[in-house]
Hints:
By secondary structure, the protein is an alpha/beta fold.
Amino acid sequence: MKDCIVGCGAIGSLFAAHLATLDDVEVWAYDLDNAHVDAINKGGLRLSVKSTLHSRPKASNDTAAIPPCDFGIVATKSLHTRPAMEVTAAIFRNGAVCSVQNGVGNEEIIAFVEPTPGSTIEVAELLALVERQLAPYKKPQQIIVLPQLPVAPNGKIRKHDLKKRAEESLSAATSV
């Protein structure tokens, strides 16, 4: 059997290392990090907790180098799942894939913005600016403009109030 682990961070490496110890499984690891791929190919994967496990899966950042696989485990952060599957889909054309989503359940990033007095905020323009300035995992999924941010008497932003507002906003957006 040929298996491919897509994304070899902490979770993916755990699966790849253990599966590569099985005699009847050929394990491939797909990862975008060239240095990590080179390190896996050179020295294998070593897990050390209570005991040490050392295995040698094959690794590549080139999907053309990976043969068709019977089974795949997608172990990318949840926001990278779609691009990872788009790139590796051909590997699993006649196989099955499961996901061990890394990052599912994390809070959504929502930006709250208070315009300066007398100004307006164009959310589309702000989103375009954010798109150019921030890494994908830092980009807000939503921007909410408030006339005034909730502030405690000591001057600190009342994060609990913002969280409640975000939950209401997300709930309204998903209950169409």
